Amino acid sequence: MSSMFRSLGERNYRIWFAGSLTSNVGTWMQRTAQAWIVLTELTDNDATALGVVMALQFGPQLLLAPYAGVIADRLSKRKVLIWTQAVMAVLALALGAIVTAGIAELWHVYVFALLLGCAASLDAPARQAFVSEVVGLKLLSNAVALNSASFNGARMLGPAVAGVLTVLIGAGPVILVNALTYLATIAALLAMRSSELLPSPPSKRGRGQIREGIRYVAKRPDIVAVLVLVFLLGTFGLNFPIYTATMTTMEFQGGADSFGLLSSILAIGSLGGALLAAKRERARFRVLLTSSAFFALSCLAAALAPTFWIFAVALIPIGFTSLSAITTANALVQGSVEPSMRGRVLSLYMAIFLGGTPIGAPVMGWIVELFGPRAALLVGGASGAIGALLAAWILHRAGAFRWRDRPWRNSDDPRTDEPL
């Protein structure tokens, strides 16, 4: 099997990959339909309202993630995922039914976005940490990249399907389809062979576990550097639904099909970035920095695009560089932490990555309202450049940054032999 897909040689991972891909397609279908409902049916192109929806959906990641990390370290990650997927399926079913019945109001979308965010905040650290239990540390970097490829392959397919179906049958049935796709992940989790999993030892019960995770991260300048970059990029740079939706409606006067097409084109680049990361033997810090810098340049090009199709083409390098950066960041963090700390560290990672959206999404929506979507794209691109500079400075101060030589290793953790 090609080195790019070597994790698929593991039976359990093949099952997990198939279930996740199916569910991811449904997730992107719902996100596209939900954004379109907010912009065109419940408001008159109100980008701030869309930003509020994103803030409510990702806000719980910031507030609940530390506790979710403790749960992921203490309980069976497989069982946690089964329960969270079931809850999210019920929420999608309820929202889809309300929209289909024609009784949806904006506050309904707000409430369901918040509830979905609460469920996702418990799901995310368990999902991230579960990958190492499926494939082990040797294949971890490749599996993380393939997970990103799955997510972005779905982002390429899901919005396009959602755009067409929204025009044909409406947004409500699209959300109902997503409710069904959660069953694929649940079925995959139940079909795995328990004897082939590599579960991490559960953390001990007791007080201070959240503080212990924070102290662990604080002593690791390599992880701190990654988190700083990811926070800036996730907060201000990766608000793609706002960029694509508002550019479609405000700059190019497009419809739902155009919005879905832009989301899919963005995912083409993202898929390429994830697959390139999968081909690498290990994650390296210089890849993270260069990807973030080129993300900034790509956003600049998109902001200056004079026509719809030039803008669409400019989205490809935005997707490529953003996913290269995020996939590399995830692999750097996962591959360098102790197994007993993985859930808590990843919960902090997810809190910073997704929890910044409640700050960034309304801000970017406000920028769109005042200055237009092109200005928002410029601000998003600047976050990548500033994040790369700050991350390099943090490592330089710690004496850990080497562009060509082997960079930071955690001297307190003999397991972290992989260069960054």
TrEMBL record:
<feature type="transmembrane region" description="Helical">
    <location>
        <begin position="80"/>
        <end position="101"/>
    </location>
</feature>
<feature type="transmembrane region" description="Helical">
    <location>
        <begin position="310"/>
        <end position="333"/>
    </location>
</feature>
<dbReference type="GO" id="GO:0022857">
    <property type="term" value="F:transmembrane transporter activity"/>
</dbReference>
<feature type="transmembrane region" description="Helical">
    <location>
        <begin position="285"/>
        <end position="304"/>
    </location>
</feature>
<protein>
    <submittedName>
        <fullName>MFS family permease</fullName>
    </submittedName>
</protein>
<feature type="transmembrane region" description="Helical">
    <location>
        <begin position="12"/>
        <end position="29"/>
    </location>
</feature>
<feature type="transmembrane region" description="Helical">
    <location>
        <begin position="49"/>
        <end position="68"/>
    </location>
</feature>
<keyword id="KW-1133">Transmembrane helix</keyword>
<keyword id="KW-1003">Cell membrane</keyword>
<feature type="transmembrane region" description="Helical">
    <location>
        <begin position="258"/>
        <end position="278"/>
    </location>
</feature>
<dbReference type="InterPro" id="IPR036259">
    <property type="entry name" value="MFS_trans_sf"/>
</dbReference>
<keyword id="KW-0812">Transmembrane</keyword>
<feature type="transmembrane region" description="Helical">
    <location>
        <begin position="345"/>
        <end position="368"/>
    </location>
</feature>
<dbReference type="InterPro" id="IPR010290">
    <property type="entry name" value="TM_effector"/>
</dbReference>
<dbReference type="Pfam" id="PF05977">
    <property type="entry name" value="MFS_3"/>
</dbReference>
<feature type="transmembrane region" description="Helical">
    <location>
        <begin position="374"/>
        <end position="395"/>
    </location>
</feature>
<keyword id="KW-0813">Transport</keyword>
<feature type="transmembrane region" description="Helical">
    <location>
        <begin position="223"/>
        <end position="246"/>
    </location>
</feature>
<feature type="transmembrane region" description="Helical">
    <location>
        <begin position="160"/>
        <end position="190"/>
    </location>
</feature>
<dbReference type="InterPro" id="IPR020846">
    <property type="entry name" value="MFS_dom"/>
</dbReference>
<dbReference type="GO" id="GO:0005886">
    <property type="term" value="C:plasma membrane"/>
</dbReference>
<feature type="domain" description="Major facilitator superfamily (MFS) profile">
    <location>
        <begin position="1"/>
        <end position="399"/>
    </location>
</feature>
<keyword id="KW-0472">Membrane</keyword>
